[in-house]
Amino acid sequence: MTLQVRFGLWVGGVVVLAVAGHLVGLLTGDVRHLTRQAEQAHWTAAQHLAHACAEAGLNHDELTVFNFFKELRRSTDFVEAACLDSTGRVFLHSDRLSGAPGPTLPFPNNQIKKILTSKGRTAWSYSVPAERRGRRVAAGQIVYDSFETTRTVRLLLMQIVRRSLGITAITLLFSVGIAWVATRKLTRPIMELVRGARRLAMGDWSIRVREQAPGELGELAAEFNTMSHRLGELDQLKDQLMHTISHDLRNPLGAMTTLTKILKTDALPPSSFPVVEALEASIVRLEGFVSNILDSARLKDGPLSFNRTSVDLTKIFAEMDRLHRPMAEQSNKTLRFSVPSCPPTGLGDEEKIFRILLNLLTNAFKFTREGDLIEVSLRSASPDTVEIQVSDTGWGMGPDQIDHLFEPFRAAQRTPAQARSRQGSGLGLSIVKALVEGQGGTVRVESALGKGTRFSILLPSAVGGL
Description:
The chain has 466 residues and is an alpha+beta fold. The protein has helices at residues 3-59, 62-73, 146-201, 216-265, 273-299, 313-330, 350-366, 399-402, 416-421, 428-438, 462-465; strands at residues 78-85, 90-93, 112-118, 121-132, 135-145, 309-311, 334-338, 346-348, 373-382, 385-392, 442-448, 452-460.
């Protein structure tokens, strides 16, 4: 779930809770208010009836009371009403409009509200006395059905609820809309920073994000652009440094290579041959390291160039054996080259294939122990494909290392000792992949911790490619 959706849901939830709390409080207050209003209306009606009863008793004007009874019957919660004289005798009743004398009831000395229960129903009785010249002359009594009163209050409340829900729905939609707009405004620069960070992680130093963001987000965007610009400058400086160092190393390495060739042609004592061969092998490995740096820098500008010809792979194998045999004997490791009786001929760049094997063998010696086996084999995988395998019985790798094995500057760490002191530049395998794929081939790796590693290089065959 994106930050925009989460923030929108959070704001919407807060709005819903606030509106719901307000609605509950409003409804609770409305219930009390409507109940008080109904009770006040009952008391007012009883007071008016009491005064009408007093006038009817003194002036014999029953018509006013009868009209008032008619008005009371319009209320759904009305049950009955009566006028009492000073002795408590009912002289007018809503159910006996003839005015015949009725029963005698207790005369109220002040305003009284009673709760009456009959046949499972509850009623409220309001009794109010009326005075003339300081003497109580009559009283009015009205009975209301409490159930009907409550039902009336509920109906009024439902009307209020419907109106409130309409207003609440409009308010909620408006609030959610505002929250969504605010969320988009806040999360858009964050998402731009996320996308920019991803491109930056992929090495795109030209990425820039908009700085027109509110508050700290704008400052963060500005700092991001500054960082991206600075990283681009540092990357250019790194490339320049790599070019300079590599080219500066080329000249002395060329001189050293020439001197070793001269030494080999001179009449040296046999005891000096191993020293010269070790020196030559070190120079070759150093030249391969310099070539890796230069090719890594060139890959940023575009694909490498290849001089594809028919290549005698057995010749390269023999050169690899000559260069690495002293190292194998010195480290007490077994180096084996397996070539079929009718070796296939590859189609590719001889110098690039030489460097592919040089890098793979350098890694094989680096990540093996004393007594391990390093084997290089050649075979025809198909009529138009040649396969070269470089395998060892060394430390091996786990799946997490294999996933990033061919990335630049991701030197594998297979033991703590290697992590401390035996790491290379991290360019060898990335260059191997580029050199193999540049010649139309593929590279695969199989490895398991403690069981060794095998690299398989598939290159076009000279027979299939010609």
